[in-house]
Amino acid sequence: MKRKFGFLCAVLLGIAVATPKAEACTNLIVAKGASTDGSVIISYSADSHTLYGELYHWAARDWAEGTMRPIIEWDTNKPLGFIPEVAHTYNVIGNVNEHQVAIAETTWGGRPELAESDGIMDYGSLIYVALQRSKTAREAIDVITNLVKEYGYHSSGESFSVADKNEVWILEMIGKGKGRKGAVWAAVRIPDNAISAHANQARIQQIDFKSKDYLYSPDVVSFAREMGFFQGTDKDFSFQEAYNPYTEGGLRGCEARVWAFFNKFNSHMGKYEAFIRNQSKDKMPLYIVPDRKLSVADVRDMMRDHYEGTSLCMTNDPGAGPYKVPYRWRPMSFEVDGKEYVNERAIATQQTGFVFVAQLRNWLPDAIGGVNWFGVDDADMAVMSPIYCSTTRVPECFRQGNGDMMHFSWTSAFWIHNWVANMAYHRYDQMIADIRPVQRELEGACDRILPTIDKQAQELYALDPAKAVAFLTNYSNEEAEKATARWKRLGEYLMVKYMDGNRKKEESGRFKTNGYGFSAMPDFPGYSQEYYRQIATSEAAERLLKKEKEQH
User: Which residue stretches, if any, does this entry annotate as coiled coil (predicted)?
Assistant: First the structure.
């Protein structure tokens, strides 16, 4: 596996910790009957302060018998060992393969005594090895669980979203502790009419041991009994309660993101706000039926959520500052006069490496059906470009090695998006009004043209599948490069418009001049009346108060 920079989606803090985890990821899930067009949809924000946003690619290829594959830990780049390679591996672009299998994850850590289990298969390697070896979601689950059984598990507690063009599963897994190989795990198929999510907290509750929609390790209950995590009957066993008990941090920093998704698309979810505030024992369900069906655009937009429209909205507390910024710099907790406080942890966050929405469509040939809507950096200000799952060439703007976390590149989408976002973080409510229309323009244009691209690809596929793949590869590359170039122009525009705290006047789509080629005098937008009122009621009010009103 090629080098991955450190990526730990959740810090293992121990079950007693009551503050949200420092780094975290989010997965949203839409089964085919809950989507507007019958697609299976999963999303993923790979959130980390050290992960560089780039698009991974493994080409399909044959391997000689006896070839050994190195296993390199995704988080650390540490060599862990080797496993035998299979005879043939599939094309993988990002987290989607040529057969429309997509896998994502969130880390929840879990019981600290189960950390440091013996083995070489870390969660990142499990994802990308499974993608190269699987044609269906169920096959991917088999690959993951068999690899862990044979070679051991090297990570802490994980939730995986495992999807194909027909179904989607949540697989949850945790190791057995130091000196023991393997893992205990459970998997649940999400019903076709439902949506689900996970965000760094185990969510599988009771297991229906007789249903084909549940899979599990043979010792998932007996191991919990052995360790003293559970003492009841099998029918009462809860995977979440046994292996990742709720804490205040797990509710407020993790389950709250799931609640935000459910609450957006089901009008009865308000009752669970008390649960995420640790004021009720009434747990949220693993999945729900939405009030309406969701589109890919709905999921893209949900990945940009900061609890808008709820009591947790991040623009409505003093931390938002004068420009209503829905972000909080780390650490996530702070102490004042002996009392500890927390900031909200929303789905959209500044420290995202990459984000995707995978769209998997069973009515099209696999080469055409799978689309990885891929973006980099903060999902709120990312442009997600369509990358078809059969793509065989990575766009230069997403190429591995085009810059890194310590080296800036003007041809890297990650750095260009960071440049724009980091300008906006300081004047969010003003700049987002200029950013959002460009984002909508780029993604909306792709939404509208995709049916035409699909049709052209199908015509080529009927003649020669290789020509269809080449066509889709070219289209995917062109769209990504076009979006990156447009975002760079947007950054230039924002820099000019908002320099020095001012806001340049515009006229007919151009910056206004004074009539002689110089810039017109800019506007001085200042701050909101709400912010001025905070100053007027602060300790500095007397010092800043004018003693005499100016005469005009």
Answer: none
In a domain, 383, yes or no: no
Q: Is residue 208 part of a domain?
A: yes
Of 491, 501, 355, 323, the residue nearest 419 (C-alpha):
491
**Is 326 a domain residue?**
yes
| pLDDT tens sequence across 38-76 | 999 999 999 999 999 999 999 999 999 999 999 999 988
> Which has more pLDDT, 552 or 217?
217
Rounded Cα–Cα distance for residues 107 and 153 (Å): 14
Residue 480 counted as domain residue = no
Contact status, residue 297 vs residue 36, Cβ threshold 8 Å:
no
Up-side HSE of residue 203: CA atoms within 13 Å toward CB?
A: 31
Cβ-contact 51, 5 below 8 angstroms? yes
The rounded distance, in Å, linking the Cα atoms of 48 and 51 is 5
Residues in the chain: 552
Domain that holds residue 54: 24-340
Which letter does DSSP use for residue 26 in this model? Answer: B
Crossing angle of helices 123-133/137-151, nearest 10°?
A: 130
- pLDDT at site 262: 98
Q: Which residues are bridge partners to 428 per DSSP?
A: none
